[in-house]
Amino acid sequence: xxxxxxxxxxxxxxxxxxxxxxxxxxxxxxxxxxxxxxxxxxxxxxxxxxxxxxxxxxxxxxxxxxxxxxxxxxxxxxxxxxxxxxxxxxxxxxxxxxxxxxxxxxxxxxxxxxxxxxxxxxxxxxxxxxxxxxxxxxxxxxxxxxxxxxxxxxxxxxxxxxxxxxxxxxxxxxxxxxxxxxxxxxxxxxxxxxxxxxxxxxxxxxxxxxxxxxxxxxxxxxxxxxxxxxxxxxxxxxxxxxxxxxxxxxxxxxxxxxxxxxxxxxxxxxxxxxxxxxxxxxxxxxxxxxxxxxxxxxxxxxxxxxxxxxxxxxxxxxxxxxxxxxxxxxxxxxxxxxxxxxxxxxxxx
Length: 349
What we know:
Elements: E1 2-5, E2 16-21, E3 25-32, E4 35-40, H1 54-60, E5 64-72, E6 74-75, E7 78-79, H2 81-85, H3 92-101, E8 105-114, E9 117-118, H4 124-134, E10 142-144, H5 151-160, E11 168-173, E12 183-189, E13 192-203, E14 212-220, E15 226-232, H6 237-251, H7 266-270, E16 290-291, E17 297-302, E18 305-306, E19 309-310, E20 315-319
Parallel strand pairs: 1-12, 8-10
Antiparallel strand pairs: 2-11, 3-4, 3-5, 5-8, 6-7, 8-9, 11-12, 13-14, 13-16, 13-17, 14-15, 17-20, 18-19
Protein backbone atom coordinates (compact mmCIF):
# COMPACT_ATOMS: atom_id res chain seq x y z
CA UNK A 1 0.00 0.00 0.00
CA UNK A 2 1.31 3.42 -0.97
CA UNK A 3 0.90 7.02 0.12
CA UNK A 4 0.02 10.24 -1.71
CA UNK A 5 2.01 13.33 -0.84
CA UNK A 6 0.17 16.31 0.65
CA UNK A 7 1.37 19.63 2.03
CA UNK A 8 0.07 19.39 5.60
CA UNK A 9 -1.27 17.01 8.22
CA UNK A 10 -5.06 16.56 7.78
CA UNK A 11 -7.09 18.87 9.97
CA UNK A 12 -10.07 16.50 10.23
CA UNK A 13 -8.03 14.40 12.63
CA UNK A 14 -10.95 12.29 13.88
CA UNK A 15 -10.72 9.98 10.88
CA UNK A 16 -6.96 9.49 10.85
CA UNK A 17 -4.16 7.66 12.60
CA UNK A 18 -0.75 9.33 12.44
CA UNK A 19 2.69 7.66 12.48
CA UNK A 20 6.30 8.77 12.00
CA UNK A 21 7.51 8.12 8.45
CA UNK A 22 10.55 5.86 8.75
CA UNK A 23 13.46 6.22 6.34
CA UNK A 24 14.61 2.71 5.53
CA UNK A 25 13.82 -0.26 3.31
CA UNK A 26 10.11 -0.99 3.07
CA UNK A 27 9.53 -4.71 3.58
CA UNK A 28 6.67 -7.17 3.82
CA UNK A 29 7.62 -9.99 6.16
CA UNK A 30 6.05 -13.43 5.77
CA UNK A 31 6.26 -16.15 8.40
CA UNK A 32 4.87 -19.68 8.10
CA UNK A 33 6.15 -21.95 10.86
CA UNK A 34 9.91 -21.96 10.54
CA UNK A 35 9.85 -20.43 7.06
CA UNK A 36 10.60 -16.73 6.75
CA UNK A 37 10.68 -14.28 3.84
CA UNK A 38 11.63 -10.60 3.87
CA UNK A 39 10.38 -9.08 0.62
CA UNK A 40 11.08 -5.62 -0.77
CA UNK A 41 8.41 -3.34 -2.16
CA UNK A 42 9.23 -4.51 -5.70
CA UNK A 43 9.03 -8.18 -4.73
CA UNK A 44 12.73 -8.95 -4.29
CA UNK A 45 13.95 -11.09 -1.34
CA UNK A 46 15.95 -9.22 1.30
CA UNK A 47 16.76 -12.11 3.67
CA UNK A 48 20.39 -12.58 2.63
CA UNK A 49 21.19 -8.92 3.26
CA UNK A 50 19.91 -8.92 6.87
CA UNK A 51 20.84 -12.31 8.39
CA UNK A 52 20.78 -10.90 11.94
CA UNK A 53 16.99 -10.44 11.73
CA UNK A 54 16.12 -14.09 11.15
CA UNK A 55 16.39 -15.34 14.75
CA UNK A 56 14.47 -12.49 16.44
CA UNK A 57 11.72 -12.64 13.80
CA UNK A 58 11.26 -16.40 14.23
CA UNK A 59 11.45 -16.09 18.00
CA UNK A 60 8.97 -13.22 18.43
CA UNK A 61 6.46 -13.17 15.57
CA UNK A 62 3.25 -15.25 15.48
CA UNK A 63 3.71 -18.65 13.81
CA UNK A 64 1.59 -17.63 10.83
CA UNK A 65 1.62 -13.96 9.85
CA UNK A 66 2.28 -11.33 7.21
CA UNK A 67 3.40 -7.88 8.41
CA UNK A 68 4.29 -4.61 6.72
CA UNK A 69 7.19 -2.59 8.06
CA UNK A 70 10.49 -0.84 7.54
CA UNK A 71 14.02 -2.18 7.94
CA UNK A 72 16.20 0.54 9.48
CA UNK A 73 19.62 1.01 11.01
CA UNK A 74 19.69 3.44 13.94
CA UNK A 75 22.93 4.62 15.48
CA UNK A 76 24.42 7.77 16.96
CA UNK A 77 20.99 9.22 17.63
CA UNK A 78 19.59 8.86 14.11
CA UNK A 79 18.69 6.64 11.19
CA UNK A 80 21.59 5.77 8.89
CA UNK A 81 20.30 5.08 5.37
CA UNK A 82 23.81 4.88 3.93
CA UNK A 83 24.52 1.93 6.23
CA UNK A 84 21.46 0.19 4.81
CA UNK A 85 22.53 0.64 1.21
CA UNK A 86 25.92 -0.91 2.00
CA UNK A 87 24.09 -4.16 2.79
CA UNK A 88 23.11 -4.66 -0.84
CA UNK A 89 26.36 -6.47 -1.51
CA UNK A 90 27.00 -9.72 -3.42
CA UNK A 91 29.52 -11.10 -0.90
CA UNK A 92 27.93 -12.92 2.04
CA UNK A 93 31.09 -12.41 4.11
CA UNK A 94 30.83 -8.64 3.69
CA UNK A 95 27.14 -8.66 4.63
CA UNK A 96 27.94 -10.71 7.74
CA UNK A 97 30.63 -8.25 8.82
CA UNK A 98 28.32 -5.27 8.33
CA UNK A 99 25.52 -7.04 10.21
CA UNK A 100 27.81 -7.38 13.22
CA UNK A 101 29.04 -3.79 13.01
CA UNK A 102 25.69 -2.09 12.38
CA UNK A 103 22.78 -4.44 13.14
CA UNK A 104 19.42 -3.64 11.58
CA UNK A 105 16.02 -3.35 13.21
CA UNK A 106 12.46 -3.71 11.94
CA UNK A 107 9.71 -1.21 12.70
CA UNK A 108 6.26 -2.71 12.05
CA UNK A 109 3.25 -0.58 11.11
CA UNK A 110 0.63 -2.90 9.62
CA UNK A 111 -0.62 -6.49 9.74
CA UNK A 112 -2.06 -8.22 6.68
CA UNK A 113 -2.56 -11.75 7.98
CA UNK A 114 -2.35 -13.58 11.29
CA UNK A 115 -3.01 -17.17 12.28
CA UNK A 116 -5.26 -17.96 9.32
CA UNK A 117 -7.06 -14.57 9.25
CA UNK A 118 -6.74 -12.34 6.18
CA UNK A 119 -6.92 -8.79 7.52
CA UNK A 120 -6.59 -6.85 4.29
CA UNK A 121 -10.33 -6.18 4.09
CA UNK A 122 -10.50 -5.05 7.71
CA UNK A 123 -10.34 -1.32 8.51
CA UNK A 124 -6.98 -0.02 9.70
CA UNK A 125 -8.33 0.47 13.22
CA UNK A 126 -8.83 -3.31 13.43
CA UNK A 127 -5.49 -4.10 11.81
CA UNK A 128 -3.69 -1.77 14.21
CA UNK A 129 -5.37 -3.41 17.21
CA UNK A 130 -4.27 -6.86 15.95
CA UNK A 131 -0.76 -5.57 15.39
CA UNK A 132 -0.56 -4.17 18.92
CA UNK A 133 -1.85 -7.45 20.34
CA UNK A 134 0.62 -9.58 18.36
CA UNK A 135 3.62 -7.36 19.14
CA UNK A 136 2.75 -6.43 22.73
CA UNK A 137 5.90 -8.03 24.12
CA UNK A 138 8.41 -7.68 21.28
CA UNK A 139 11.94 -6.62 22.09
CA UNK A 140 14.71 -5.05 20.03
CA UNK A 141 15.52 -5.36 17.22
CA UNK A 142 11.76 -5.60 16.55
CA UNK A 143 9.62 -2.53 17.23
CA UNK A 144 6.02 -1.42 16.92
CA UNK A 145 5.77 2.03 15.39
CA UNK A 146 4.08 4.60 17.61
CA UNK A 147 0.71 5.87 16.42
CA UNK A 148 -1.55 8.68 17.56
CA UNK A 149 -4.91 10.21 16.67
CA UNK A 150 -3.74 13.53 18.13
CA UNK A 151 -2.85 15.94 15.31
CA UNK A 152 -0.80 18.14 17.65
CA UNK A 153 1.36 15.19 18.63
CA UNK A 154 1.82 14.24 14.99
CA UNK A 155 2.90 17.79 14.22
CA UNK A 156 5.41 17.56 17.08
CA UNK A 157 6.85 14.37 15.60
CA UNK A 158 7.07 16.05 12.19
CA UNK A 159 9.10 18.94 13.58
CA UNK A 160 11.11 17.38 16.39
CA UNK A 161 12.36 14.13 14.90
CA UNK A 162 13.64 15.30 11.55
CA UNK A 163 17.14 15.57 13.00
CA UNK A 164 17.02 11.84 13.71
CA UNK A 165 16.44 11.10 10.03
CA UNK A 166 12.70 10.50 9.98
CA UNK A 167 11.07 11.46 6.69
CA UNK A 168 7.95 13.10 8.06
CA UNK A 169 4.51 11.82 9.04
CA UNK A 170 2.14 9.23 7.55
CA UNK A 171 -1.64 9.67 7.90
CA UNK A 172 -3.78 6.52 7.59
CA UNK A 173 -7.59 6.54 7.36
CA UNK A 174 -8.92 4.57 10.31
CA UNK A 175 -11.66 3.08 8.15
CA UNK A 176 -9.35 2.28 5.25
CA UNK A 177 -8.67 -1.23 3.96
CA UNK A 178 -5.24 -2.54 2.95
CA UNK A 179 -5.16 -1.69 -0.77
CA UNK A 180 -1.93 -2.76 -2.54
CA UNK A 181 -0.59 -0.36 -5.19
CA UNK A 182 -3.16 2.30 -4.29
CA UNK A 183 -2.27 5.61 -2.65
CA UNK A 184 -4.90 5.65 0.08
CA UNK A 185 -2.52 6.87 2.79
CA UNK A 186 -1.13 10.39 2.98
CA UNK A 187 2.50 11.41 3.54
CA UNK A 188 3.66 14.78 4.77
CA UNK A 189 7.37 15.33 4.14
CA UNK A 190 9.90 18.10 4.74
CA UNK A 191 10.95 20.38 1.90
CA UNK A 192 13.51 23.18 1.70
CA UNK A 193 15.20 25.33 -0.94
CA UNK A 194 18.86 25.29 -1.93
CA UNK A 195 20.96 26.96 -4.64
CA UNK A 196 23.28 24.47 -6.36
CA UNK A 197 25.94 24.48 -9.04
CA UNK A 198 25.01 22.44 -12.12
CA UNK A 199 28.12 20.41 -12.90
CA UNK A 200 26.71 18.14 -15.58
CA UNK A 201 23.71 16.20 -16.79
CA UNK A 202 22.53 12.79 -17.94
CA UNK A 203 20.57 12.03 -21.08
CA UNK A 204 17.01 10.78 -20.66
CA UNK A 205 16.21 7.16 -21.49
CA UNK A 206 14.44 8.36 -24.67
CA UNK A 207 17.86 8.80 -26.18
CA UNK A 208 21.02 10.85 -26.38
CA UNK A 209 20.53 14.30 -27.85
CA UNK A 210 16.74 14.12 -27.57
CA UNK A 211 15.95 14.87 -23.94
CA UNK A 212 17.81 15.64 -20.71
CA UNK A 213 17.13 13.17 -17.91
CA UNK A 214 18.67 14.87 -14.88
CA UNK A 215 20.99 17.65 -13.75
CA UNK A 216 23.99 16.82 -11.55
CA UNK A 217 24.14 19.17 -8.57
CA UNK A 218 27.09 20.38 -6.53
CA UNK A 219 27.90 22.44 -3.43
CA UNK A 220 31.27 23.80 -2.31
CA UNK A 221 32.62 22.51 1.00
CA UNK A 222 34.78 24.42 3.49
CA UNK A 223 37.90 23.48 1.55
CA UNK A 224 36.51 25.01 -1.64
CA UNK A 225 35.95 21.66 -3.34
CA UNK A 226 32.79 21.13 -5.37
CA UNK A 227 31.01 18.08 -3.95
CA UNK A 228 28.39 16.13 -5.88
CA UNK A 229 25.26 16.32 -3.71
CA UNK A 230 22.59 14.70 -5.87
CA UNK A 231 20.45 15.15 -8.95
CA UNK A 232 17.45 17.16 -10.08
CA UNK A 233 15.09 15.25 -12.35
CA UNK A 234 11.56 16.62 -11.96
CA UNK A 235 10.97 17.80 -15.53
CA UNK A 236 8.08 17.56 -17.96
CA UNK A 237 8.70 15.96 -21.36
CA UNK A 238 8.66 19.41 -22.98
CA UNK A 239 11.15 20.78 -20.43
CA UNK A 240 13.51 17.84 -21.03
CA UNK A 241 13.61 18.66 -24.75
CA UNK A 242 14.01 22.38 -24.06
CA UNK A 243 17.00 21.71 -21.80
CA UNK A 244 18.94 20.10 -24.67
CA UNK A 245 19.20 23.47 -26.45
CA UNK A 246 19.55 25.45 -23.21
CA UNK A 247 22.56 23.45 -22.00
CA UNK A 248 24.30 23.16 -25.37
CA UNK A 249 26.48 26.32 -25.02
CA UNK A 250 27.74 25.16 -21.60
CA UNK A 251 29.00 21.82 -22.98
CA UNK A 252 31.79 23.41 -25.04
CA UNK A 253 35.23 22.75 -23.45
CA UNK A 254 33.41 21.68 -20.27
CA UNK A 255 36.06 19.21 -19.10
CA UNK A 256 38.80 21.82 -19.16
CA UNK A 257 39.55 22.49 -15.46
CA UNK A 258 36.31 20.76 -14.48
CA UNK A 259 36.39 19.79 -10.75
CA UNK A 260 34.86 16.40 -11.58
CA UNK A 261 37.05 15.62 -14.59
CA UNK A 262 38.74 12.67 -12.88
CA UNK A 263 35.37 11.01 -12.26
CA UNK A 264 35.53 9.49 -15.71
CA UNK A 265 38.13 6.94 -14.62
CA UNK A 266 37.12 3.47 -13.45
CA UNK A 267 38.64 3.76 -9.97
CA UNK A 268 36.56 6.81 -9.19
CA UNK A 269 33.39 5.28 -10.56
CA UNK A 270 33.89 2.12 -8.51
CA UNK A 271 33.20 4.09 -5.35
CA UNK A 272 29.56 4.52 -6.37
CA UNK A 273 29.62 8.13 -5.12
CA UNK A 274 30.46 9.76 -8.44
CA UNK A 275 28.00 10.93 -11.11
CA UNK A 276 29.09 8.11 -13.40
CA UNK A 277 29.34 5.51 -10.66
CA UNK A 278 27.55 2.19 -10.93
CA UNK A 279 24.25 1.93 -9.07
CA UNK A 280 24.00 -0.94 -6.56
CA UNK A 281 20.23 -0.91 -7.15
CA UNK A 282 20.35 -1.20 -10.94
CA UNK A 283 23.32 -3.31 -11.96
CA UNK A 284 24.32 -2.50 -15.53
CA UNK A 285 22.29 0.72 -15.70
CA UNK A 286 23.98 3.40 -17.77
CA UNK A 287 24.88 6.27 -15.45
CA UNK A 288 27.28 8.03 -17.81
CA UNK A 289 27.16 11.81 -17.66
CA UNK A 290 27.96 14.90 -19.70
CA UNK A 291 30.01 17.68 -18.06
CA UNK A 292 28.97 21.34 -18.13
CA UNK A 293 31.10 24.41 -17.52
CA UNK A 294 30.79 25.55 -13.92
CA UNK A 295 28.65 28.58 -14.68
CA UNK A 296 25.01 27.61 -14.02
CA UNK A 297 23.20 27.90 -10.71
CA UNK A 298 19.79 26.37 -10.06
CA UNK A 299 17.40 26.67 -7.12
CA UNK A 300 15.99 23.28 -6.12
CA UNK A 301 13.65 21.96 -3.46
CA UNK A 302 14.95 19.10 -1.33
CA UNK A 303 13.62 17.12 1.62
CA UNK A 304 16.66 16.47 3.80
CA UNK A 305 20.35 15.61 3.72
CA UNK A 306 21.83 12.17 4.26
CA UNK A 307 25.39 12.92 5.27
CA UNK A 308 26.69 15.38 2.66
CA UNK A 309 24.13 14.51 -0.07
CA UNK A 310 20.43 14.92 -0.77
CA UNK A 311 18.58 11.83 0.42
CA UNK A 312 16.08 11.93 -2.48
CA UNK A 313 15.81 13.56 -5.87
CA UNK A 314 15.73 17.34 -5.75
CA UNK A 315 13.03 19.26 -7.62
CA UNK A 316 13.70 22.09 -10.05
CA UNK A 317 12.46 25.51 -8.94
CA UNK A 318 14.20 28.12 -11.14
CA UNK A 319 17.49 29.21 -12.64
CA UNK A 320 19.50 31.68 -10.54
CA UNK A 321 21.33 33.88 -13.06
CA UNK A 322 21.78 36.40 -10.25
CA UNK A 323 23.98 34.08 -8.18
CA UNK A 324 27.61 33.04 -8.66
CA UNK A 325 28.54 29.33 -8.47
CA UNK A 326 31.16 30.09 -5.79
CA UNK A 327 28.34 31.20 -3.47
CA UNK A 328 26.69 27.76 -3.55
CA UNK A 329 28.07 26.32 -0.33
CA UNK A 330 26.91 23.96 2.41
CA UNK A 331 26.58 26.95 4.73
CA UNK A 332 23.21 27.87 3.19
CA UNK A 333 21.64 24.60 4.35
CA UNK A 334 19.45 24.59 7.42
CA UNK A 335 21.05 22.45 10.13
CA UNK A 336 18.59 20.24 11.99
CA UNK A 337 19.98 19.23 15.40
CA UNK A 338 20.03 15.47 15.98
CA UNK A 339 17.12 14.27 18.07
CA UNK A 340 17.53 11.04 19.99
CA UNK A 341 15.05 8.36 18.97
CA UNK A 342 14.59 7.08 22.50
CA UNK A 343 11.05 8.40 22.94
CA UNK A 344 9.77 6.71 19.78
CA UNK A 345 12.41 4.01 19.27
CA UNK A 346 12.93 2.35 22.67
CA UNK A 347 16.47 1.15 22.04
CA UNK A 348 18.95 2.81 19.72
CA UNK A 349 19.67 -0.34 17.75
